[in-house]
Amino acid sequence: MPAKNDDLHGNVPDQCSVALILIDVINDMEFENGQALFENALPAARQLAALRKRAKDAGVPVIYVNDNFGKWRSDFRHQLGHVLEDGVRGEPIAKLLRPDKQDYFVLKAKHSAFYHTQLDLLIDYLRVRTVILAGFATDMCVLFTASDAYLRDLNIIVPPDCSASEKAEHHNSAIEHMARVLHVRTPPSTEIDLASLIREPHSEANPQSAV
Q1: What are the Cα distances from residue 113, in Å, to 15, 32, 86, 134, 135?
Q2: DSSP 3-state assignment of 180?
């Protein structure tokens, strides 16, 4: 809990024990094996769009954590414009998951959404205790982010229908690993009760600390 500036000087007005974190969903998919990832990611994006809407309706903050595409001068809005306007493969997913002005944005340079980013500070000020992780790819950036969330004693949920990998077997094995090793809960997105999660005591929601 921050000792001072509880709203980060007015820049983080929300407070909620749950946050939905969208990982690398604004992605042009213009890379080797990008077509394979896109084909699996598009149906997941449809499910994620529905979950995002429910989260917004429930007052759960939505945080976009996106790769900087290896360009240290990157700007999230510029990346969004590129994916929406330049005729790239990932355009249909960006249209489904287009952020609005109430959403939060964090740029990352490595696989984990936490590694050398401002995500720690943001979720601290939001007073988040449960993170719902979704995005692409399950066996890479979602997995690395879940691992870092586990080390931070956060309660973690990864709905399998809201993430994807280039190959289904890679996706499935990452979900199994997170459930077995990181004690991640993996219900379908339609079974996530956001109101109950918001009310859920952190001490009961976080069994991994006893491992």
Answers
A1: 20, 22, 26, 11, 11
A2: helix
Architecture of the domain delimited by 18-203: 3-Layer(aba) Sandwich (3.40)
SS (H, E, C) 114-149: CCCCCHHHHHHHHCCCEEEEEEECHHHHHHHHHHHH
Q: Retrieve residue 16's tokens.
A: 């909620």
pLDDT (0 to 100) of residue 138 = 98
The structure's pTM equals 0.88
Contact residues for 145 (Cβ-Cβ < 8 A; gap 6+): 21, 23, 65, 111, 112, 113, 114, 133
pLDDT tens digits, 39-68: 999 999 999 999 999 999 999 999 999 987
CA atoms within 13 A on the CB side of 114: 17
